[in-house]
Write a structure and sequence with these properties.
By secondary structure, the protein is of the alpha/beta class. The chain has 8 helices and 9 strands. It has one domain: Rossmann fold (3-Layer(aba) Sandwich), CATH 3.40.50.880. A 7-stranded mixed beta sheet has the order 3-2-4-5-1-8-9. Strands 6-7 form a two-stranded parallel ribbon. Helix 3 packs parallel to helix 5.
Length: 213
């Protein structure tokens, strides 16, 4: 399994991402954490990711999970055409909902465990890999899911990791810093396994090797 899990955007060492994905890798950009935003804001967010990844000489293109609702087989085929996945930040509950509707919450963990592609991203992207999303409602608006889709938010994570990820930890320049610090404190008090990441840092997992860079 190959994971490049950044706190914010590419982090200080995107070379680990390039090494993991491969030079000129095809990268599917998932921006569904931004689905609750106005279309123009969401489009700008996607363009920002495409530009940043292109600067690394990667070949990114958006993969919108909404286009695969009820068709996990098609999603699996599309993912298989890529070398890596880049899952940007935003609302983790909106991202989790999109993964559920598309069947990505079944397809993606299977691909990762088979090492069929590398997984990378930041903020909500790493957070959704945890066993549970409980606690993150203090940072992201879980009610955005029922407002947008009329259904309850999902608090089960994908379970790819055995612990939670808390981004933006002790990162005073980020607007979610205080809320994330509080989440980390609550996890610690409750004995919830977790990893904290400051902005600029990334958790890199390559097979049995795990390090924060």
């Amino acid at each position: 399994m190959r994971l490049y899990l950044s706190s914010f955007r590419l982090g200080h060492h995107p070379e680990f991402l390039v090494r993991m994905a491969g030079e000129a890798a095809r990268v599917a950009v998932v921006a569904n954490a931004m689905d609750g935003q106005p279309p123009d804001i969401r489009r700008q967010a996607v363009e920002r990711e495409l530009a940043a990844l292109s600067e690394l000489q990667l070949r990114p293109a958006e993969l919108d999970l909404r286009g695969y609702a009820g068709d996990p087989a098609a999603l699996s085929e599309s993912l298989a055409e890529n070398d890596a996945l880049w899952v940007r930040g935003g609302n983790v509950f909106m991202l989790r909902h999109a993964l559920h509707l598309s069947g990505g919450d079944t397809v993606l963990p299977d691909l990762l465990r088979r090492d069929a592609l590398a997984y990378a991203g930041y903020s909500a992207g790493p957070c959704v890999l945890a066993p549970s999303l409980r606690g993150l409602e203090a940072v992201d608006d879980a009610a955005a899911v029922p407002r947008t889709y009329g259904t309850s938010p999902i608090f089960d994570g994908l379970g790819v990791l055995p612990y939670a990820i808390v981004p933006h930890y002790r990162s005073p320049d980020h607007p979610e810093n205080a809320a994330c610090d509080q989440v980390a404190a609550r996890y610690a008090a409750a004995g919830v396994p977790h990893r904290t990441l400051r902005d600029g840092q990334a958790l890199v997992i390559d097979g049995a090797t795990e390090a924060i860079c």
